[in-house]
Structure prediction request, 80 residues.
Amino acid sequence: MSYVTANAAKLLEEALLLSPEERAKVASELLASLEDREREVQAAWATEIARRAADAAENPDDDEDWRTALNEIRREVLSR
Prediction:
C-alpha cells in the first residue's frame, strides 16, 4: 500500500485480521464518513453559488477573480 502513513498502514493491517462481518462494518463506517464530508462540500458550494448569484444581481459591474473565490471556499471548507 503506497502513500499512506505508518498509522494508516498499521490500522489496515489490524483491520484485515477482523472477521469478514467486522471488516464490512468498518468499511461501511469509513465510506459513510466520506459521504458526510462530500455533503459538507456540496452544501458549501450551494451556499457559495447562492451568495455569488445574489452578489451578481446586486452588483452586475463588480467582477471577482475566480481564483480568489476558489481560495476562499477552500479555506472555509478545510477549516471545518
About this structure: The CA atoms of residues 6 and 58 lie 51 Å apart. The mean pLDDT is 87.
